[in-house]
Amino acid sequence: MRTDSYSETQPTVRAKIMVVDDDPDLRQALSLRLRANNFETVNACDGYSAIALAQKEKPNLIILDLGLPAGDGFSVLKNLQQYPALSTIPVIVLTARDPEGNEKRTLQAGAVAFFQKPADNDELMGVIRASLQAGWGWGHGLPS
Amino acid sequence: MENEPAHVLLIEDNPGDADLVRLRLVESKSDVLVNCVPRLSDALACLDIETPALVLLDLNLPDSHGAETFRRIMQKAPNVPVVILSGQDDELLANKAVHLGVQDYLIKSEITSKQLERALRYAIERQGLIRSLDITRKQQLEFKNRFLSHVSHELRTPLTCIHQYVTLLLDGLAGPIAPDQMDHLKIVLKSVNQLHAMIRDLLEATRADSGKLRIEPRCIDIGELMRQSVAMMRPSATEKHVSLEVVVDPAIPLVYADPDRALEVFINLVDNAIKFTPANGSISVKGSLVETDPTSVYISVMDNGRGIPRECHPQVFERLYQDPDAVDGNRTGLGLGLFIAKEIVTLHGGRMWLASEPGTGSTFSFTLPLYSLSKLLFPIITQHGHLRKDLALVRVELTPISKELRGGWKDTCQHCLEVLRRSIFVDKDLVLPPTGSNGPIQTFFVLASVDMEKVNILMDRIRSQVGKLPQLNSSGSMQVIAERIPPAPVADPRTLEQQVWGIADYVTEVIQQDLWNNPNFTDKENPTNAH
Fold first, then answer.
1. For the whole prediction, is pTM greater than 0.95?
2. Which of B157, B192, B406 sits opposite A96 (nearest CB)?
């Protein structure tokens, strides 16, 4: 599931971002952009593997789709809250669904931001950096 | 009617007439059960318990007369067919009733058994048809809206994919690209953005159709919003060599509108104006007050483009209207923009209209409601017929840690507002309606009828009750300041109302200044407030 490797030669610790989306093309595009912005990425394609991978990889941030097989985005948010180690990871929801009815629900379920697809890249990167700097990441605030 | 006897509710106060109807029904060998009541109140009570197959109704009852009688019955049982029993003298009224949804009327003195039996049978059948038509219509509307909503969502996924990969290429993240290729990709991106806008419009129109379009009005500075929208549209106007100016009457008080939605309306109208104005043309966005309508602000977007033929005016605001003469590669879109804009304005209680002559240009105008601060202030700032002496304005500003972190910030502000409302004295202080444009900083104002010494106590209370909310502390900070509202001169010749207006004007000005000092956008051509 892990598609790219973490380079040991990087001088600084890079933030690790987990992309959860069932569309492989979109996962790839997002990962490419994130890596170009000096983030490390891991990918999951459904709700079940998202939780398993989050426990294994302990990402600093999660980008989460809502419509997913094997447990939708809402159940992922709910499950993350049940593990103390995972409950502090900032989650950004990125979905094709309407903000109306979904935005509030996801934020109440613990997400830090809601984006509707297609999202503006600069805005998305801005929120990712802000969320990581807010120190809600895994253990430490990270350079971006 | 063939198997089980049909229940007929006969509402008739004259025993002779009631017996006559029963007799005719027996003669006709109709398989009916008649329940006869003399008063409307009895009938309404009966309809509570049981739904009859038909109501036979005399219009003049001891407790109700004329049109009111069938109106009440139809309101109570909208799906039950009603046949009116009328005298010769009120045939006109009976006719009108048929127009309003009553199935039929029979003139009492002329009733034959055959006619009665047939009237009842047909009335029941017609009502059944109407009902099933109505159900089908509702189902179809529901299906259409669900279908459109579903399709728009499904279109988003591949569109997102195209958007992602095109921007990857454009940003050079997949290697360097030649200038020509760059131009081509920009065209792809432009088309993707157009498609995206169409999908958004489709969803908005569907929402408007099914009554799901919502607005969250607040006190806003409409001038600020107009300048914001002009700043956003300036690049595309410049690209087309069209001049774009904004003129706002500085006397406009606060407007009560949803800032995001109002911005949507502005952008829509200005975007349209740019589309249909040739190079070197000009567009003017104006906000003004009209003496004959003191409760609204009048806003117009005027261009000197080619105008709209008079015969097209009625259709302009309809769904799917497109300019029949659109040429020069103007992609007109779905033709939903003006429909949505008008719906948004209507939701605010405003109107939108068009004035246009071919060859000279078009002016789209609309109104939005003004906020009447003085009405709100009156009970708080007056006492025993006099203006209170000591009045202070407390400003509570909430700033998010990061302007990017919008998630939940709106909710946090809402929660703060609720706590703020609980931390004041309801008979002496007043939390003004939330103000603001669509920026991340949220300001609340509290009008307090205390002197500057006591206002410190209020500020401390706000600081301790609102400032200590864990939600606020994790995502933002709060600043509380207060100022004294200049008191009216001791020998003020004005009436109490006029004095209250004076205070309202003062407060309005402070709020407007505040909104100007927190600009989210600056327009390069209008860096200050162009009045």
1. no
2. B157
